[in-house]
Amino acid sequence: MSENTDNMLKIAIPNKGRLSEKIYDLLACAGLNFPSKEERTLQVTTKNGKYSLIFVRTQDIPRFVEVGVADVGFTGFDIVTELKSNVDKIMDLDFGYCEMVVAVKEEDEVVSPNDLPTNINVATSFPNISKEYFSKLGKNATVIEVSGATEITPRLGLSDVVVDITSSGATLKSNKLRIIDKIMESTAIVISNKDLNDEKRASVSSLLRALKSVIDAREKKYLMAHVPKNALDEIKTFLPGLSSPTIMPLLGDENNVVIHVVVDSDKVYESIEHLKAIGGRGILIMTVDQMVE
Questions:
Q1: How many domains does the chain have?
Q2: pLDDT at 243
Q3: Cα–Cα distances in angstroms (integers) from residue 7 to residues 32, 50, 69, 70, 204, in the given order
């Protein structure tokens, strides 16, 4: 008897690259138990049969979600904007940050986009965004769509300007290009189909809670320590945790207690120094996999 997959949540993620690996890792940390991805695997399913993961090109994911081939997708905000996809943006992620910029050759006497000539050739992988941008500036832009190596087009005489994505600007600089404007910022986002049934919407909500628990936990550490009981009031001033430290007695020791607390990752070593200064010992720091408030 074939398995009923009508209510299986179909999730589309990029099929390759650093973004793909980060998303796959995020889903795994959120408790979605997928088998290991083989090099040529295009689709995998969780062992419980609740989720199906589809590996496709990042640029295709908004369309897959829009038409319902996938219920949920992980892609870039820039791509959704470029395609004008009719999907719901349901979550921003904490990775995949980049900027969409306008760049010219270093030697060009252009300070801002307004200095560009009225008639220009623009090379980009984002034709719709580029056309709208230059139209608002009153420029007659001939947009040349390229799928890669945008940075080299000015040196080849193909374009006067490029509109491209960059995270550090290093690639543009290495190709002797200079940024003159920023069009938008982008990060990885989660999108969903607009016409999901109630059961799938509930599954999406559960997925988002699991993802948020992982993302929130990445900025936290779990700290345990033996501390003098008479120092608890002071400890609460620098270790508030999510609300206040959890305090437990030590067997056979009336003068000391054990505290359990979640702290911000960037405050761990400062907290340790405070604890040691007031007589803390047996300090243990652990990672937090998921955190649900």
A1: 3
A2: 62
A3: 16, 8, 13, 12, 11
